[in-house]
Amino acid sequence: MEEAIEKNEIELVSEKSLRASSVMFTFDELRSKVTCVIDYLKLHEFQMQIGKLGEAYVFEQELEKLEGTPYFTLVDDSKAADPKNGYDILSYDVDGNVIFIEVKTTIKEGSDFYISQHEVNTARECQAMGGKYLLYRVGNILGEKQHITLETIDNILDTALYELEPYNYKVRKRNNIEC
């Protein structure tokens, strides 16, 4: 480097080219590389179908578990139609104890999933009242039926086993706020 300085072989870089080189791509370059447009409505519809498929799978599993018991006819999956419930299926164990089931379904096995604040609050309320709130994790839902996985999570609030990460915030503009 010292030799290059002595021979006056140092290339000067203008401030403008320095700024341009610090940006990997310009807006126009990035925009030209966008090749597809995602239809978020179709994506949401697909996710809803995946969720309903998982709920139907769990409903059938619950019926199978309770076959021959007086609780067989009491399993109720209509709760899934109303998100205000905070759970998808009302079921029972073989002793007749009520179970509130939230179903989380993914295409892949063992992937992360999302739970709403309302569902977490419902789990807390259930626990506080001595109830049983179970989360059923259905994985590989689009695979062959024998390859679908079902994991029962007894306590989603157990911080030693699960990390609940706040994910979404609703933003509302405040009216008439003075600083």
TrEMBL record:
Pfam families the UniProt entry points to: NOV_C
Domain Protein NO VEIN C-terminal stretches: 55-146
Protein name: Protein NO VEIN C-terminal domain-containing protein
Gene source species: Paenibacillus kribbensis
